[in-house]
User: Fold this.
Amino acid sequence: MQYCSTRGGVHGWDFHDVLFSGYAPDGGMFMPESVPMLSPDTLRSWRGLTYTQLVVEVASLFIPTQLIPRQDLEVLVGEALTGFSVPEVLRIAWLKEGLSVLELFHGDTLAFKDLAMTCTVRFLNYFLRKQNRRATVLVGTSGDTGGSAIQSTKGLSGLDVVVVYPRGRITPVQEKHMITCLDDNVHVFAAHGSADDIDRTLRRLFADQDLVRSHGLMSLNSVNWSRVMIQLAHFIYAYLELSGMEQAEADGDLPELEVVVPTGGAGNIAAGYIVKQMGLPLKLVAMVNSNDIVHRMVTTGDFSMAANVTQTLAPAIDIQDPYNMERMFWLLLSRDGASVKNMMEEFQQSHRHSLPENHRKLLSQVLSTGTVTDEGILETMRRCWEENQYVLCPHTAVAVWHHYHCPHSPSLNRCYIATASPAKFQAAVQRAGLTFDLPEAVLALDKLATRYQNLERSLNWCEDWEDRLREKIQSVSSARKTGGNYYR
Assistant:
């Protein structure tokens, strides 16, 4: 299994290479050069596997045994997925009127990012220890990724993690999961801007190949292929559990499953589309909040950012740059790196691109979309509670709105992806007129000390932020070379 860039300038990299990378050197994103197919017989043989076992099977398709032997892979994944609050790691809530919610939020930071993050960090640490080297992880977050990256990497001797979050645009729990971690290898910045502003700065840093090479700079955002790869597993798990495939004839067609995903940076929906390319009959629906670029792209071809990111009750998907759509475009356009390069460079330079109608039609054939207002989020949270005594987080409510407003045939099973616990979004829960008992671990965050630095909004904020982060990366690396602590 080898990997290439979606923009055509890089080929023949292995899993180790892409694991330790951010964006590809040509600005693209890494993808496997060929996508393995899953036969109906393989899927039937996987029925009854635990989620952890399924992750091992999926990862083994993309990680050659000469890089991570199967026995080591089983240990790494097993260790990564212990400590979740439910033994099965994931859980399906079977609610009324065919509403099936796949709960992905039972990790330390109560968000789906914990699933892929814990595994990816184990892979990183595995190679770092074998090679006796260090790496610096640079992460921009719209809320959940930062906390998950910190909890997964804190205390590891071979990794430093630098996290940048948009101050005032995330919830108190999301913020405290980051700023209360005082481990010496954790460095947190609060930026006075949006998640898209942060991404713009980080792209500039990753484009500096001298900086990347000198400091082992890498990403743990869903830019990193390993994050997307692990996310393939929960789509396959959902299919095996919810499609009704066990009732299909042994030699007949597999049944379709509709999977509805709250969407921001589009890493999760991109994973779903890759699984569809692997042969699973998935019908994919990407639901967005008022930051509706994905919806406009699919329905009208308008791939352009709004003037500003709208702050909503679902802050983790308050994103105007759904960067993982690049992976979907690459697959849709038959791996035409030149076309993807032209499209994405135009978008990044002007923040707008108009999809040709033939490209828009290709996209709309594999992806449906919808957009939900804050009032729609609250209405969905209330209705789900009234009918099921089940509290949704506002992001999951963005997906579940589809259940209440888009009737479907009883013969088509559906799955709604629950990306976070309502415990992280108390303001939204209260605005819906509901209550949710906070876990002890969340209550304890209020009593902890904090540490972070501000990135202020200046006239030349992008360059200033880049300079501050570059200085931090360099000073941390210098401290590690002398073997001492960074924070005295």
